[in-house]
Design a protein that fits this description.
alpha/beta, Collagenase (Catalytic Domain), four-stranded mixed β-sheet, binds zinc ion
Length: 274
Amino acid sequence: MITVITILGGSSLLVFLIWSWERIRYDYRRLDRDSNHPAPEGSGSLLPEWAQHHDWLRTHNIYYRSLSLDNQARFLRRVMDFMRYKEFKYIDLEPDPMIPLLISAAAVQLTFGLTDFRLDFFEKIYVSGSAYQVHWHKQAFQGHVSLQGIYLSWDHFFHGYQEYDDGHNVGLHEMAHALTYGAMMGRTTMEKSFRTKFKEYAKAAYPILTRMRNGEDSVLDRYAATNFHEFWAVSVETFFEKPLLLKTCEPALYGALCQLLNQDPLELTAVKVV
Ligand SMILES: [Zn+2]
């Protein structure tokens, strides 16, 4: 352990200690499922798995880096839970333990303020090396959600977190679709309070959507004007990547998103996990 402490430094050690405590307290209902959903293989690094995950998240996920240490520990625990419940399938892409970690982190980021964070409606996440064709569509897809699962282009997913201030993040976009998809299909354990708050969100969203469909510019990308579902997913991207701009230009929408997701990206150190 002394070697590990030396390699990782004090803050990492604190995250580990909090993380370990959370694990001990955690309800291990999932154990009977673990044999079907084994944890991803280690990377071959000298670091223990939790420390490698912490390191990758700190390097590639600005949201995680902005959290307080105790929230980083909770985030890490949720990510590891999420990964174990999902089956990752790779298309034209070599499996790499960083891929499920970072994709799971996008889902956990979106739902960090919610009790129900596993997006249970979906068991499978398909990851393609780059943009891909779907049926008859002419344009290649960067991501989509269907009854079969959540689909992502790894190239575009990774780029979304490398350029975290441009309002484009396909990972958060598709996870936003996934979050509401299960509720729409009526086959999810989504909290009732989320459904109620989503109606409030819709009240704030529709006037902006109408304005955009009438040709007005907005802080949101024009793709949001496609329909309400795309508006929702794009507003989530903007909420996390351009929070100050969204709060300034569309305070009602920003407030509704804060209420709905139970978090404020402008005050990440104060996030209270329920
Ligand atoms: Zn979409």
